[in-house]
Amino acid sequence: MGELVSKNYAKPLHVNPLKLSQPMGATLAFLGIKNCMPLMHGAQGCASFTKVLFTRHFKDPIPIQTTAVNDITAVIDGGEISISEAINNITKKVTPDVVGLFTTGLTEIKGDDIKGVSMLLQDKQKIIYANTPDFEGGLESGWALVIESIIRQAVEYSNSIDEKKALIIPNVNLTPIEVEKIKESVEALGFGAFALPDLSDSLDGHLGVKQGALSCGGITLEEIKKLGNSALVITIGDSVKKCGEVFKERFIKTHVMHVSSLQGLQASDEFYEKIIEYRSDISVPPSVKRWRSRLQDTLLDTHFVLDKTRVITADEPDNAYSISRALLEAGCKMRAFISQKSDVLQRFACKAEVGDFEDLEEVIDEADLLISNFHIERIAHKYKKAFLIRGFPNYEQTGAALRNNVLYEGSCAFLNECANIMGHLH
What we know:
The strands form three sheets. A five-stranded parallel β-sheet has the order 11-10-9-12-13, with helices on both faces. A four-stranded parallel β-sheet has the order 2-1-3-4, with helices on both faces. It has three domains: 22-137, Nitrogenase molybdenum iron protein domain (Rossmann fold, 3-Layer(aba) Sandwich); 162-283, Nitrogenase molybdenum iron protein domain (Rossmann fold); 288-423, Nitrogenase molybdenum iron protein domain (Rossmann fold), CATH 3.40.50. The protein is 42% helix and 16% strand. With 426 residues, the chain is an alpha/beta fold. The two termini are 32 Å apart.
């Protein structure tokens, strides 16, 4: 268990924020459904900021619409008029399979009944709704709340189970290529794999047709409806653990398997061990065993550079935990800051606390290497520290969606990248 650090005062605000909002996580989740239009119920600026952030991060057009609530409609409209008009405007231009409707702080405070409005409009347009106020939670919880809504509102009941069907529920920090690699790994074990949501072919950086009109890839609405017969559900990251519990409540025949991380040797071993424990007739492919031996060798090779390297990571909880766990195996001395309260805080085997970039700067003398999002670059230059960019946003680097740091293969790449950064400093 990690050493939890507590301050002797209650910090009343984020001075230099690390966290992103729930509506941003909700946007990403809906972009993992094919032919979906995310519809943010709130002020126009909220959607504009989200669109710009993800457009710059993924280097691709991001489809998103807004109900554009203003000071007049916020007072006189209970949500029905603005949402109905937004749906009409969307369907004049495109034909989405589903509209993903989610709230912001403004519309939550005024108490708009998005469930009731969605029910009234279902004959006109299929809608999946989620309450995601931005005055609580963050990127991870917004993503998870949408997944729970999809399971409750779109997955149809099934009397049968397909023993070879597996559903992967990734946390928001996993890149599109990492989701693809996880699906391939599960398929190599004899399952037909689906991901909910699935960013692996929607925001993976491919050149598509009519990009930006609707989400151009992901799991289809028809596939979502039929997920109820999945024999195995795999949740990855503590932020989506409840999603598996919701699925189990609705589909009691399904076996739910949870892992908190897929980064590093021990976490990867646990992943394969749990699947083999579920189905003893599974044989691990030779390529997986080969990558495991490569990771063992990588741990030996990088240990000479990373041993005793002091690392501070600051990110969304699940990502910070995965990073710290992998680097601890290589001998690093870790400290972590996470963007919001999370159950995963209890799992850290190093000093960990909820904080922001101001808190990080207060202890920056303890670090040789900083790992966080794009905003860490300025801090690293200021204090002349080595840095590695991970998480959201990543504005300046290309290929963020194609970076794989999970399971044996991705862990090799991650450790070598960290070791090469530190090696250049010696």
